[in-house]
Each structure stands twice: as C-alpha cells, then as structure tokens.
Specification:
Length: 202
C-alpha cells in the first residue's frame, strides 16, 4: 500500500491531467486508477484530436465562426439528407448525348427525349409498380442521389438495335431505345427495367 501511494504521488501531475488521481485507501483503488488512466490515454486522443483538427480546418477563412453564428443556413451543406426523387431531379441528373443538329438522328433523339421526360412524370405520378428509384438503380446502381456528385456524370444515349433500354452502371449511362410512339416506349422501358438482371441490362 505504501508503494502504491508513493507511485501515485510521484506521478500525480500525469494522473491529475488524466482525471484519475484519487485518494488511495485500499489496494483495490489501484484498478480504478489504472483503468481510468488507460481509458484516458487510448480513448481521449481518438475523440479529441480529430475533433480539434476538424475545428481548426473549419476555422480557415473564419468559416467556423460563421457556422456557429448561422447553423441553420449551413445545415443542408454540413448534414446530408436524402431528398425524394422528382421527375425534374432525375431528368436534370442525366446529360443527353445528341447527334449533330439538323441530322435525322437528332430529330428522332429529341422526340425520344420528350418520351423520356413524359415517362419520368408518369412513373412519379401513377405508381404502377415502377418508381424513380428503380430507374436510378437501373442506371447507376444507387437508390438515391448521393451528397457528392455522381462520377462519371450520368448520361443518356440512344440506340436503334434494341427495343429495350440498356444500362451501364459503371458509366452511369442509360441507352434509350428509339421507338415510334410514347406508348411503345413506355411499355419497353417498364419491361426492360423490371426484367433487368442485377443493376441493369449490359
């Protein structure tokens, strides 16, 4: 017991810093001191050092001060929250790859692009077993748009060799079939997406 008290006094500054310095009455108190010190030594740095580094990073250009003063303004940027997909958000996500202006292919592609927007609106509104999440999953392998940008940028391309849509989830690309009417297009899209193995037809 004398040796324990002597060691505790010798290292009192360190134990006080760790918050585990105590009056030792029994040998059993040694376990409490050792447990407290080990917890402080191994756990405390893991919690505080990254926190301080993050705070120091935010202090660059006085950003941390602005964050403290206006937390509600910065909430959407600091805390991700998945938003419900809309026809407009899915449409704006995909960049169409169109043929040169004036070509016969361009005319057909623009017509099918109109079908695509009508299809997204119909899927969102009619609830026929197909959802915008299904379309996003088919094209990208994701059910929601992530907080970071999708890389590569999702694209729409056009094809005549198949009447069903095809997808490449590695390239975030949907190949839309060029078909003569919206009704045929809608039927082909529903069938192709619902029956695609895995993330989509490749």
């Amino acid at each position: 017991m004398e040796e324990l008290v002597e060691l505790a006094d010798k290292h009192s500054s360190m134990l006080q810093t760790a918050g585990c310095y105590r009056c030792l009455r029994t040998l059993g108190d040694k376990e409490k001191v050792v447990d407290g010190y080990i917890q402080w030594y191994f756990t405390y740095p893991l919690i505080t050092q990254p926190g301080y580094r993050f705070k120091d990073g935010l202090a660059t250009l006085n950003f941390f001060n602005a964050l403290e003063q206006h937390p509600s303004i910065f909430l959407p940027y600091m805390c991700y929250r998945a938003e419900d997909l809309t026809a407009e958000s899915v449409e704006s996500l995909f960049r169409p790859q169109l043929s040169p202006t004036g070509s016969s292919n361009r005319h057909e592609e623009e017509r099918v692009l109109g079908y695509w927007l009508d299809y997204l609106i119909a899927v969102k509104e009619d609830g026929s077993g197909m959802s915008l999440e299904d379309i996003l999953m088919f094209a990208t392998g994701l059910k929601e748009i992530p907080a970071a940008k999708l890389i590569p940028q999702p694209q729409l391309t056009f094809q005549k060799h198949s009447r069903f849509p095809e997808a490449n989830v590695c390239a975030n690309t949907i190949k839309l079939p060029i078909l003569p009417s919206y009704e045929i297009f809608e039927e082909a899209m529903n069938y192709g997406i619902k029956n695609a193995p895995g993330f989509g037809l490749h």
